[in-house]
Specification:
7-stranded mixed β-sheet; single chain; alpha/beta; 15 helices; 445 residues; 2 domains; 4-stranded mixed β-sheet; 16% strand; Aspartate Aminotransferase, domain 1
Amino acid sequence: MDPERAQSYAFVPRPGAVPLTIERAEGCYLFTPDGTRILDAAGGAVVVNIGHGRREVAEAVAAELERATYVVPVFATESRLELLERLRREWLPDGLDRVYLTSGGSESVDAAIRLARQHHVAAGRPERTKIIGRDLSYHGTTVTTLSAGGHPKRRAAFGPMLTDWPKAPACYCLRCPLGKRYPSCAVACADDVERIFEEEGPETVAAFIAEPVGGSTAGALDPPPEYWPRLAEICRAHGVLLIADEVMSGFGRTGKKFGVDHWGVVPDILVGGKGLAGGYAPLGGVFTSDEIVAPLAAAGEDLMFYTFGAHPAACAASNKVLEIMEREDLVRRAAEQGEALRKRLAPLEDHPHVAEIRGRGLLLGIELVKDRDTLEPFPPEANLTNKVVGAGFAEGVFFYPGGSGPAQDVIVLGPPFVIGDEEIDKIASALCTAIDSAVERASSA
């Protein structure tokens, strides 16, 4: 591809930048026009689960486009019905039988927040207006989802436009925001959620939203085992809906169908995205119960759709991706290969600039610091994370950049579930080399 032509696409990150051009993708690899092969250790944006280039998904999409190009989301199509039936039969937690499909994660979280609000209004509780989120979180790029999230950099330009909802502390044991240590803390970060409810007046709170296993904001933050059961208990006690944002952690990524399955918790509303169609089509979902929908139905209200939500071709893609996941037992494989990758990364646990390796399944985060004993970060101007990503490309591997706030420099690993042992070895060795290279450059700058 002509570099000038590629440059015309690059309004992000900035005018004049020339983006990396990908000609095709297959399995766990990306290919540039000159034939360079790049191992996709990020699964794109932690999206790809069954691997790139599966022909049977493309064939399912093509067949559906011939049958139904666009159909208003509120109408039924065969592809929509097949997907809904598969989700209810094979994937969703018990009781979450109501499905609303969007065209992505931000839309899904936005819709989940609207659903929570409409539920309370229709049930005669219009005073419940607040959505409580957490620090070091990310729920999407709409004004509403940015308001619910706690990603300082992504919120910065929009401060005056955002709703100033309170934030609970992240369950970030490495740097506990409450100055405590697990397990003697008795999971105080969960109890702090109840404190916020009581300070705000629980009768004013519509929902609490959190990622079961954190995404890229702070790098796969994995909560203590008591955390989610305690959250569910607190929300039930105060009549607050519990929203689990599983856009990144859902559909097998953590080694269970959903992150909440690790703790046996069924939220009031579950949000899915990336892995729902595995990168083969834009699709997200909001999953809830008859109990949550009932007040809307009684009031004759609907949850307004997005134009491209539940697109027939996207539903066909998702149905085939999930069928492949089931047929090849890829949720189990994500758990096994995640464990293998974690073991292969073990030598990095003693690296002088690795503060922590955390996460579950094939959603792992590596936090980097200048001094692992004091947890002093590199100066922001060192731009360490991007230096690691650049050094990774030199090794033929794409790592996903993350980090925000105190977790400034984070590398996220989220490869396809079909990743093999050879690729796992390459990820581990390339990451070690990339960190050393980036630190050397940052230190000599």
